[in-house]
Amino acid sequence: MEKAMHAAHGVGYEVYKRQHHVRMRIEKKREKDYLRSQRVASDLERKIHV
Predict the structure, then answer these.
(1) Spatial contact of 22 and 15, defined as CB atoms under 8 Å apart
(2) Calpha distance 39→25 (Å, rounded)
(3) Sign of dihedral through CA atoms 13, 15, 20, 25?
(4) CA 9 vs CA 16, 25, 37, 46: distances in Å
(5) What is d(CA 4, CA 10) in angstroms, rounded to the nearest whole number?
(6) Model confidence, pTM
(7) The dihedral sign for the CA sequence 10, 14, 19, 23
(8) HSE of 24 in the Cβ direction (CA atoms, 13 Å)?
(9) For 1-50, where are the E strands, in sequence order?
(10) CA gap 23, 50 in Å, rounded
């Protein structure tokens, strides 16, 4: 998990766990990525069924 966290976000889990501002930055990015993926999936779904 440590390597995945560092590879994806540039910080280790210990830093993520202890520093609130780092945690908030990462969680905002995750939320943005999730919403973007939902829009892409929705767009593809519409194109397939049209």
Answers:
(1) yes
(2) 21
(3) negative
(4) 9, 10, 18, 32
(5) 9
(6) 0.79
(7) positive
(8) 3
(9) none
(10) 41
Residue found by looking up tokens 């939902």 in the block: 38
Unique residue bearing structure tokens 């993520």: 16
Per-residue tokens: 12: 């280790």
The answer to whether residues 12 and 5 touch, using CB atoms and an 8 Å cutoff, is yes
Report d(CA 40, CA 18) in Å as an integer. 33
Give per-residue pLDDT as tens, 1-50.
778 989 999 999 999 999 999 999 999 999 999 999 999 999 999 999 86
Ramachandran area for residue 31 (φ above 0: left; ψ -120 to 50: alpha; else beta)? alpha
